[in-house]
């Protein structure tokens, strides 16, 4: 990748790859760049109901963005979806380690049973086991999820989550979205909404760098100073967002409308208390300790389609099942288990009173 692209890339979508090999060698986590970036609605990939398919893993927050957009836009019936097992292949797998696989019969160590959300691969007609093989059919060595796939042409449209959610929103009606007053417009295109788009873009920038990618910078970096910098930025942003919500009692980050900024923040904060607090070494505070953010989190969780867009069982299995001893923590259980806690916005007030 050229230096020019590094300097001009949208930092709310992808991380600069400048000196990536050197930074990784020094212990920094550097996220790679997605290679498939076609556009829905172009001649090559027209927006049509029933034509497109998603490959996701529910433990992955980048996939969570996409399944969340699919659900809140009411696209569940018009865009089909396959779900990979949350733990990737092991060292003894004939295909090699660290590969996403569609294996509905594989047992989760957390439950001792197969996970009901996991599916076989159904979009190619070949029942492929590995996401890697979907890429290989196009001559690519990539292996990541999510993937937006065109069932008619048997081609990958995109594997960049930020662009997928933007495309699903822009083409929602043509794709067959559910019509109704509760269906949000995540990134309104009208001239009158230009200031709103500017604010969404500003928040996306902040949230991607310090929260979405910042969690991985903290959790997967092997350098203490890199970790400390990511840790500080993560909690500084949580404080900023809590203050933003408190400033005028707004329901969502940009006001009274649920937008793309809310959607992009939600997957990380959904994982924070039950997973990232421990796994990503982000133990400075819980979201429960930020009363306005906690109530926001519960408010989003209550929106139609949000709760069913993910699974904390998959998250726990995926993150802790790959840790050094593969033992999966069973908590937290206080003040109550998760995700049940997300049904109780009042817990933030109880926590604040108990610590006063």
Tell me briefly what this model is.
This protein has helices at residues 3-8, 20-25, 61-72, 131-136, 161-170, 172-175, 194-219, 224-248, 260-279, 291-301, 312-320, 347-355, and strands at residues 52-56, 80-83, 107-108, 113-114, 147-150, 155-158. It has 356 residues and is mainly α. It has two domains: 52-175, Glutaredoxin, CATH 3.40.30; 192-303 and 324-355, Glutathione S-transferase Yfyf (Class Pi), Chain A, domain 2 (Up-down Bundle), CATH 1.20.1050.
The largest beta-sheet arranges its strands as: 2-1-5-6
Number of separate structural domains:
2
Summed over residues and divided by their number, the pLDDT gives a mean of: 92
Strand and helix order? HHEHEEEHEEHHHHHHHH
CATH architecture of the largest domain: Up-down Bundle
Counting DSSP E segments of at least 2 residues, the number of strands comes to 6
Label the overall shape.
Answer: globular
CATH topology of the largest domain: Glutathione S-transferase Yfyf (Class Pi), Chain A, domain 2
Q: Classify the beta-strand content into a percent band.
A: 5-15%
Q: What is the level 1 CATH name of the largest domain?
A: Mainly Alpha
* Through-space gap between termini: 52 Å
The number of helices is 12
Secondary structural class: mainly alpha
Cα radius of gyration in angstroms: 20 Å
Percentage of residues assigned to helices: 40-55%
